[in-house]
């Protein structure tokens, strides 16, 4: 669409995108045989917890982008700005997660009751929250679709609030983002003008470090988490919920050509493909690949000793026959095991400022061979002007009249960048940022593989042969 298209033509194009993406989303639900869900259903739809629903995710990305673009075009700017300056859902979500509201309502549903009065809900909360104050929060959250009000001051769960049950890792994700992450982000205005924090990129000079400076002097977010056992457990669960929310593990397994890579490796005379997950945590993606390809994937998980112990427990239960080794490493100080076919870093580089990121990448590059590849699983940000070189680099560009980066359909990536700033003094990066990191680390960016929300950024060792490709 031409940039000088009339406003009416652009509006009609947005309406067309809304219609087509809605039809695509409905089709994905109907394919399951369970029909199209309703917001106030008391049961989850099979796709509600299906991390690999890539087609649905892409349809929703376009739908959200087009709806938001349409609303901000037609609404008065003061209306939109007023709404965006009121981010009160997050602290309200923190309250309902910590007080176990969804669990309380679910126990009522099991008794065939149609909801629970706010007075009874408040009585059952962990801290006996004031019912009038709780009701104010529940009204807001129900207005935003997080619960349903079935009669005056009587609430029940719905598809969305079922994700807030304590048994669902997503509840930990919500608690993490609405808790310390939000608190750290709220300190950005103060940290940005403090002489010790304003221009620093050190991990212990983030706005979160500013928040806890009287509690733990010169501490990073990682230091704080390690000193809080409850936070460690919740962080691990939150990362599981985050992975499910963005569909990251399934997307990595489905989109990258693992079968072709494995076939090539076997054709060269090897008995398996070697896969080293650096900073692995439980090694969720390695686990899926090992299950899918049985003994053809030889996995090495590398992390600090404590998360590796957690990983051992998970693998012993979920894939006891997997070909896996657990090798401790401090990736800021040491190199991983040498000569692997694939080195994988999942949501690692975005945690670190450029200087530390280069150190991590150099440590990996030093043990790679000419056929090794390094895959970074991260968000890849885009700027908001249209540049054809972006499409040539496999970075997806939204159709006009949407913003090139899908706008609100992809806003979580840009919110994550502020999360990285608040917690670590780091950021999510653009393609050019990854190219620069690779150049400083002896690596060359080969390709960006778009997933449902995130990307795989593929590197090889820099060489004249690869640079010519």
Overall SS class: alpha/beta
CATH architecture of the largest domain: 3-Layer(aba) Sandwich
Strand fraction = 5-15%
Shape: globular
Q: What is the structure about, briefly put?
A:
The chain has 469 residues and is an alpha/beta fold. It has 4 domains: 7-84; 101-164, Orthogonal Bundle (Arc Repressor Mutant, subunit A), CATH 1.10.10; 169-240, no CATH class; 247-467, Vaccinia Virus protein VP39 (Rossmann fold), CATH 3.40.50.150. The chain contains 21 helices and 12 strands.
Explain what this protein looks like in three dimensions.
The chain has 4 domains: 7-84; 101-164, Orthogonal Bundle (Arc Repressor Mutant, subunit A), CATH 1.10.10; 169-240, no CATH class; 247-467, Vaccinia Virus protein VP39 (Rossmann fold, 3-Layer(aba) Sandwich), CATH 3.40.50. Helix 1 packs antiparallel against helix 2 (54-74) and helix 4 (89-98) crosses helix 7 (131-143). The strands form 3 sheets. The protein has a 7-stranded mixed beta sheet, with helices on both faces. The two termini are 32 Å apart. The protein is globular and about 70 Å long. It is α/β, with parallel strands linked by helices and 469 residues long. Helix 15 (284-293) links the parallel strand 4 (273-278) and strand 5. It has helices at residues 7-31, 54-74, 77-84, 89-98, 101-109, 118-124, 131-143, 169-186, 188-191, 207-211, 221-226, 229-246, 248-255, 258-267, 284-293, 305-318, 354-365, 388-392, 411-424, 431-441, 464-467; strands at residues 116-117, 148-151, 154-156, 273-278, 297-303, 324-328, 342-346, 373-378, 380-381, 429-430, 443-450, 455-461.
């Amino acid at each position: 669409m031409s940039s000088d298209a009339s406003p009416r033509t652009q509006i009609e194009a947005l309406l067309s995108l809304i219609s087509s993406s809605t039809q695509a989303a409905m089709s994905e639900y109907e394919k399951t045989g369970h029909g199209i869900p309703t917001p106030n259903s008391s049961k989850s739809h099979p796709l509600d917890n299906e991390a690999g629903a890539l087609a649905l995710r892409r349809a929703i990305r376009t739908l959200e982008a087009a709806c938001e673009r349409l609303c901000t075009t037609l609404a008065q700017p003061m209306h939109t700005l007023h709404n965006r300056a009121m981010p009160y859902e997050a602290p309200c979500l923190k309250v309902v997660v910590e007080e176990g509201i969804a669990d309380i309502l679910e126990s009522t549903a099991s008794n065939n009751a149609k909801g629970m009065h706010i007075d009874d809900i408040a009585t059952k909360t962990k801290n006996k929250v004031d019912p009038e104050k709780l009701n104010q929060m529940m009204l807001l959250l129900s207005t935003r679709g997080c619960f349903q009000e079935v009669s005056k001051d009587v609430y029940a769960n719905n598809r969305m609030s079922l994700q807030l049950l304590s048994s669902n890792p997503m509840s930990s994700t919500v608690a993490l983002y609405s808790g310390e992450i939000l608190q750290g982000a709220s300190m950005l205005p103060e940290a940005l003008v403090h002489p010790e924090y304003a221009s620093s990129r050190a991990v212990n000079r983030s706005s979160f470090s500013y928040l806890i400076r009287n509690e733990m002097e010169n501490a990073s977010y990682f230091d704080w988490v390690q000193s809080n056992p409850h936070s460690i457990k919740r962080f691990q669960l939150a990362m599981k919920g985050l992975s499910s929310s963005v569909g990251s593990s399934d997307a990595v397994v489905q989109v990258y050509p693992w079968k072709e890579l494995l076939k090539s490796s076997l054709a060269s005379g090897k008995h398996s493909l070697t896969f080293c997950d650096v900073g692995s945590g439980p090694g969720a993606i390695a686990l899926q690949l090992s299950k899918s390809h049985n003994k053809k994937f030889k996995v090495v998980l590398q992390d600090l000793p404590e998360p590796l112990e957690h990983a051992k427990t998970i693998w012993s239960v979920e894939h006891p026959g997997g070909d896996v080794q657990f090798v401790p490493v401090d990736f800021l100080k040491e190199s991983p095991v040498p000569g692997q076919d694939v080195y994988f870093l999942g949501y690692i580089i975005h945690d670190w400022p450029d200087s530390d990121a280069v150190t991590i990448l150099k440590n990996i590059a030093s043990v790679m061979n000419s056929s090794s590849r390094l895959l970074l699983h991260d968000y890849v940000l885009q700027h908001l002007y249209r540049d054809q070189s972006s499409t040539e680099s496999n970075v997806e560009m939204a159709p006009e009249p949407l913003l090139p980066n899908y706008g609100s359909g992809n806003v979580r990536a840009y919110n994550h960048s502020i999360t990285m700033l608040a917690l670590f003094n780091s950021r999510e990066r653009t393609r050019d940022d990854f190219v620069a990191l690779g150049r400083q680390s002896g690596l060359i960016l080969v390709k960006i593989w778009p997933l449902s929300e995130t990307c795989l950024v593929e590197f090889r060792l820099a060489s004249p042969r690869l640079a010519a490709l």
